[in-house]
Amino acid sequence: MSEPRELLRLATAGSVDDGKSTLLGRLLLDTKLLLSDQLEAVSGSNGDGPDLAALTDGLRAEREQGITIDVAYRFFATPRRSFILADTPGHERYTRNMFTGASTADLAIVLVDARHGVVTQTRRHTQISALLGIRHVVTCVNKMDLVGWDRDRFDAVAADVRELAERLRIADPLVLPISALHGDNVVDRSPHTPWYDGPPLLEHLEQVDVAADRDLARLRLPIQWVARPAGSRRRGYAGQLAAGTLRAGDPVIVMPAGTRTTVTAVDTLDDAAGGGAATAGASGAADGASAASSDGAVAVPPLSVTVELADDIDVGRGDVLVSPGSEPPAARELEATICWMAQEPLRPGRRYALKHTTRTVRATVQALHERIDPETLLAEREPAALALNDIGRVTLRTSSVVLADPYAENRVTGAFVLIDEHDNDTVAAGLVLSAREVKPPREGRRDVTWHPSALDRGHRWTALGNRGATVWLTGLPASGKSTIAVELERALVESGQPAYLLDGDNIRYGLSDDLGFSPGDRAEHIRRVGHVARLIADSGTVAVVSLVSPMEADRAAVRELHDAAGLAFVEVFVDTSVQECARRDPKGLYARARAGEIKGFTGVDAPYERPQTPELHVPTAEIDVAPAVARIVELVRAA
User: Fold this and answer.
1) Which residues does 458 contact at the CB level (< 8 Å), separation at least 6?
2) Other C-beta atoms lying within 10 Å of the C-beta of residue 393
3) Cα(84)–Cα(528) distance, rounded to whole angstroms?
4) 204 vs 175: CA distance, rounded Å
5) With contact defined as beta carbons under 8 Å apart, do 64 and 361 qualify?
6) Are 277 and 266 in contact (CB under 8 A)?
7) What's this model's pTM, rounded to 2 decimal places?
């Protein structure tokens, strides 16, 4: 059998009409990797030769508009190397596609039109390449034939490219003059550039060393699947190696539990990218395993492997096998750079599902720190939101631990995506800058068990003659929530129904004394109040909550908490215009916020999401306090 060829993953980027698709077509044509029927399908009837761009622009809309919309993947090989090539869109609207298409690339090819030089999209795509940790960046100054192969023009563009690379800390960028349409300096050297002494593009792609980019020192094996093969007495743990090497006899730690054990067998099919691996037993082959190579062979990234462990311990999907002495932090807080991919802007306080390797957790956007301007590459501090295709720096707080490394150290365990749980859309791709442990309120939280009361709720409520519920009053600051809440508590108690008012400020005196007013802390404050209200309602008392609670997701989480416990939840939207709220302003907060003394104030520079389906809508311009209270009492009694 022939020796496997090393694999190189590469991505192209550049502005619209810079010639990315044409370059890829030229590579395929000049390396004689196109079949005759493929050439016929893209050849015109006027004898002008094949339409090279059409070889990679596979969507009908792409061919009609003459632009790349989606990421197009092509596979080709030369005697020296195999390639997986991602042709990414150049239009600003599809920047997110470039982010995802280049996320697995070892090398990026950025095209520049010699006539136009470095433009905004050049800066954007080069910046994304740097953010994605692509260590090998090649800039092709294309369409040199249209500027008469002018060396001075090439030198000017190359100087701009190298200045940009220096700002982005990209080491040793290669800049070469080409004509993708005619094939100059693509596969073969061009006679038009005797002043260029560098290699043509394909020669560089065949020679560039990417094996040294892999981290072989620190083991990272996220577990994807647990299986027990037929006839085997032991379980196998399958996943793709993200870093390090693995062989039978290696000591490992199972994170996040921290359990130590030893690998007894490693099983994988031979892989062209990794050079093969084996099943090898520390004291013989494991039951049910089939050797793929000789004993003692080593599995390396990015091979997919199945391992067996010496001890019968609890290992499941989302756990990670690591080498002793290189454990990642069991992080609950991530500082990350993200590319926002959704039409609806990202705002602080929002919650999403965070998918990291094989583990999925919930995450709250604790804060937005920066938005990067694609033109100047400068950071806008504390933006109000990130819009579609924006790149920015954020802090995320997760519901459970994430075993993440900085992206600069590991491009697999340092990457994640955010998912909107309502429609399952991927809304962001993220790169971890740092991962921090945040101690839970109590040690041993995993061992905490909910103890139901020995007194049945129905029996309790029947004996007391009362039913519990939660009334959640939400609205802008100074909308009148507290006024209605005070009168509601009085009306319920005077009617014989126990009730207790939970005011947001009162809770901050004790239970939430450790929280500030960042979006993440506000979300945690609402979560705590929701749990207290649930306990009060379970006791047979009506919990009357007066809280701005501006985000729909936070209110929905509290409602879900009550629904799961079978408790009534009555949401009341106290609807008052922001102008009227500012006029009342009993604490003077609106005036201070508008003067810039208070940041992130709901109704001024922070959003309020109106409830879509509250149990009661109270427009205070039309309904007085007494009728509103009477209507809420009716809803509580009917719940």
Assistant:
1) none
2) 20
3) 49
4) 11
5) no
6) yes
7) 0.67
Distance CA 339, CA 102 (A): 13
CB distance 462 to 594 below 8 Å: no
Instruction: For tokens 């027990």, name the residue.
Output: 228
CATH (residue range 215-327)? 2.40.30.10
Q: Which of 115, 175, 107, 158 is nearest to 136 (CA)?
A: 107
Distance, CA of 361 to CA of 333 (rounded, Å): 12
pLDDT at 63 over 50: no
Q: Tell me if residue 15 is catalytic.
A: no
Token pair for 240: 């793709």
The confidence band for 606, taking pLDDT boundaries of 50, 70 and 90, is: confident
Architecture of domain 330-436: Beta Barrel (2.40)
Q: What's the confidence (pLDDT) of residue 53?
A: 61
Which are the contacts of 24, defined by CB distance < 8 A and separation ≥ 6? Answer: 12, 52, 55, 56, 74, 85, 87
Which fold, 6-213? Rossmann fold (3.40.50)
Q: Are strands 469-474 and 568-575 parallel, antiparallel or unpaired?
A: parallel
Q: Extract the runs of DSSP E, i.e. beta strands, from 93-229.
A: 107-113, 136-142, 174-177, 220-222, 225-227
Q: Measured between alpha carbons, how far is 369 from 349 in angstroms, rounded to an integer?
A: 13
Query: What are the tokens at 304?
Result: 């997919």
d(CA 131, CA 188): 32
Distances (CA, A) of 282 to 34, 262, 265, 297, 624: 48, 9, 7, 12, 79
**Residue 191 burial class via C-beta count within 10 angstroms: exposed 0-12, middle 13-18, buried 19 and up:** exposed
C-alpha–C-alpha distance, residues 400 and 407, integer Å: 20
| pLDDT attached to residue 465 | 87
Using the Cα atoms of residue 605, residue 606, residue 612 and residue 613 in order, give the sign of their dihedral.
Answer: negative
Coil vs helix vs strand at 396: strand
Domain ranges in the chain with CATH number 3.40.50.300: 6-213, 457-638
Burial class (CB in 10 A: 0-12, 13-18, 19+), 33: middle
3-state SS class at 40: helix
Apex 32 CA angle, 30 and 37, nearest 5:
115
| Distance, CA of 214 to CA of 413 (rounded, Å) | 13
Q: What is the DSSP letter of 330?
A: E
At 118-134, the pLDDT tens digits run: 988 888 888 888 888 88
> What pLDDT does residue 70 have?
54
Pick the closest to residue 277 from 261, 295, 264, 263 (CA basis): 295
**3 DSSP 8-state letter:** P
Could you tell me if 237 and 268 are in contact, meaning their C-beta atoms sit under 8 angstroms apart? no
* CATH 2.40.30.10 boundaries in the chain: 215-327, 330-436
In CATH, the architecture of 457-638 is: 3-Layer(aba) Sandwich (3.40)
CA 409 to chain centroid, in Å, comes to 17
The Cα 135–Cα 158 span in angstroms is: 18
Region of 603 (left: φ > 0; alpha: ψ -120 to 50; beta: rest) is left
Task: Say how far apart CA 375 and CA 481 lie, in whole Å.
Answer: 45
State the catalytic residue, choosing from 15, 21, 479, 549. Answer: 549
H/E stretch holding 367 reads strand 359-372
